[in-house]
Amino acid sequence: MKxxxxxxxxxxxxxxxxxxxxxxxxxxxxxxxAPAAQVRDFITWYQYDEKNEDPASDERVGNQYLRDTIPQFxxxxxxxxxxxxxxxxxxxxxxxxxxxxxxxxxxPDLFEMGSSGLxxxxxxxxxxxxxxxxxxxxxxxxxxxxxxQACTGPDGGLYCIPIAERPHLVYVWKDRFPEGFPTRPxxxxxxGERLKAEGLYAMTFFGSTDFNGNGATRAVFMAFASFGGxxxxxxxxxxLNRPENVAAVEFLRTMVQSGYVPEIAFAxxxxxxxxxxDASAGSFPTGLFGYRYVNPLTAPNGTKYSKGNExxxxxxxxxxxxxxxxxxxxxxxxxGCNNEVTGFGIPVGAKNPEAAHDYINWIMSPEQNAxxxxxxxxxxxxxxxxxxxxxxxxxxxxxxxEVVAASACRPWHGSLERRPEALRLxxxxxxxxxxxDPSLDIATELQRAQDEYNAGG
Amino acid sequence: xxxxEIRRKPRNRFRxxxxxxxxxxxxxxxxxxxxxxxxxxxxxxxxxxxxRGWDYVGVDNFQRLFRMGVFGESVGHTIVFLIGYTTLTxxxxxxxxxxxxxxxxxxGLYITVLFVPWIIADIIVGIVFRLLVVPDYGLLxxxxxxxxxxxxxxxxxxxxxxPPSWFGGFPFPPAPAMIYLIMASAxxxxxxxxxxxxxxxxxxxNEIIESSRMDGANGWQVxxxxxxxxxxxxxxxxxxxxxxxxxxxxxxVFSLTGGGPGTSTEVLSYLLYxxxxxxxxxxxxxxxxxxxxVVNWALILATLRITRVEERSH
Lengths: 457, 314
What we know:
The complex is a heterodimer of chains A (457) and B (314). With 457 residues, chain A is of the alpha/beta class. Chain A has helices at residues 2-21, 60-76, 93-103, 118-123, 131-135, 145-150, 185-197, 210-213, 219-226, 243-257, 273-277, 311-318, 353-363, 366-377, 384-387, 395-406, 419-436, 442-455; strands at 40-45, 81-85, 110-114, 161-173, 201-203, 281-287, 297-298, 304-305, 322-325, 336-345, 380-381, 408-410. Chain A has 2 domains: 40-165 and 340-406, Periplasmic binding protein-like II (D-Maltodextrin-Binding Protein, domain 2, 3-Layer(aba) Sandwich), CATH 3.40.190.10; 168-338 and 411-455, Periplasmic binding protein-like II (D-Maltodextrin-Binding Protein, domain 2, 3-Layer(aba) Sandwich). In chain A, strands 1, 2, 3, 4, 5, 6, 9, 10, 11 and 12 form a 10-stranded mixed beta sheet that branches. Chain B is mainly alpha-helical and 314 residues long. The model of chain B has no long low-confidence stretch (mean pLDDT 90). Chain B has a two-stranded antiparallel sheet with strand order 1-2. Chains A and B meet through helix 1, helix 3, helix 4, helix 8 and helix 17 of A and helix 1 and helix 12 of B.
């Protein structure tokens, strides 16, 4: 009898364990008909969340875009695909995908990505080469070759499909520079001195080492490139210690040490934006997409742009309070800027790559392409015919187009493959030189960062 | 007789094996979530990822780790953080426990209020503490950055450079951000440590304390010669908990300082996070994780050893 009880208890325990471990049944909404057997889920990872309806969310534009287009896609592919989006944090998506691929876990059919993260995904074997498929599509010939190049891996494979290009430029409060935004670094310094006397700042920028040195993709690269420098030698090696870069660091150091940049520029967490929002800083070099996050705004003349969304910056530009300009460059040099590509990758192990193909072709259609570029893309279209469309003739896009035409924009990483490591080393060195210890020798510090990267291969 | 023995044998075997079957699920879980990841970490630390798969690289990941300029700095920051964090938390926890042990009016309310920081996630504590001191815009920045209050230029906690080091490359005195990080971490850990010490304090017999007072012992002597020795096992547990939590915790650093300004609050656990999740260098991250595990073990063994010596001497 005792034995029977023991066996019974043991069996019950096992039952509980198995019940707890068993996969839960998929919940179905009451009254919802079971989907047809042939309809398969098309899983995407976006940094946006269609279920987040918070109007104050930083990602409201992308969230709304998904809310609008998921039903459209499902209608266009009724009976074939059902789009299921799984939102991911923008600065964790790459790591999560790599972990999922390497662990053999569930991966999405389509992954929203930027060209900056391409080499890490490539090195970790997380993305499929799409060259063969893409080159057979009708839109391929219409692609900006630079955008395709940004999606090309070290082995020549095409690891992402570019949809939008995001150049960097300078947002400027026009009234803070009554004689026009300077085109030369000396003019920028002179404006800094004048503004300082008024208790204001010439520039705010991402000056901290936060987000793994992401600041090195923004104003710091604009300064380096505008002085004729850059981060690599074109052969995969870091090349920091060169006269152009030293001059760029000297310029940034003077801006910071002279008090032309607010302290909040170094606080991290994108808090440098605050100084532009209240116009205490006259200019803000950052990505074109920055307009979406920098709001509400108060112009130097007191005008408030306070919808609290991306329209504030667009309104300020339309009203002429904010203008877009290239980064100042020394005599004989062309303003430089970073240009990254955003688009889609298809992970290794995706269950429905055909769904991703259908989706990409759908996004490339004239009805969808401009919408994607304008909303989640926040850049210029990689498809050349879309660039000519009416949506890209607004004051914002016209000015941005002029800035890009006057600049030499290129991906910050050049031929560098270990991009996160490079970012961290570069931004660490620049931060030490311009903020932490301005007495350090610039060439020596740049050489040190360069040597550490090049020794790491 | 023989038939009875034969019948008993399976029953005995079942009884003998029953403990094994009962602990089997636990063993399986421990193997799956602790032993396997530990071995996998060792394997990872000896490999490097390439597009075609994993390459065996021997100790290259360790060598690259030691070549990183920030590695040595992180070791220094970790030491400074751990000493500051454990000392501040234990001292404050002990003082608050002493006060609460006096059977004050509303002491239940004080304990409840005191417990609030413990129930807030460290990442939230970091964000709140950060918002207080954001340069120019933070709630306290008007006070902190006021040169009249903090001459000559005021203090910008999140962006102030570290002062010149007193000991070569060792990061002491720490940057204001490191001091603030220690304060925020201590604030969060304080309730648990206080309650732990209060519970231990309440087990010390009042008779011993009263008789020592009758013998002329002052307050400090009671603490030094009675309370601390009698509470030593609890103090060691508190020290363990704080040291291991401080060594491995990353949430507060992540949300409060992001390792900055520059690298001045970059501790080893944060470097591990950066290597693994920002740089996707799983091999090097695994190498660092192993080093941290070894240090953890060394700390535990050293503390146990010290405690045993102390206990014997008392």
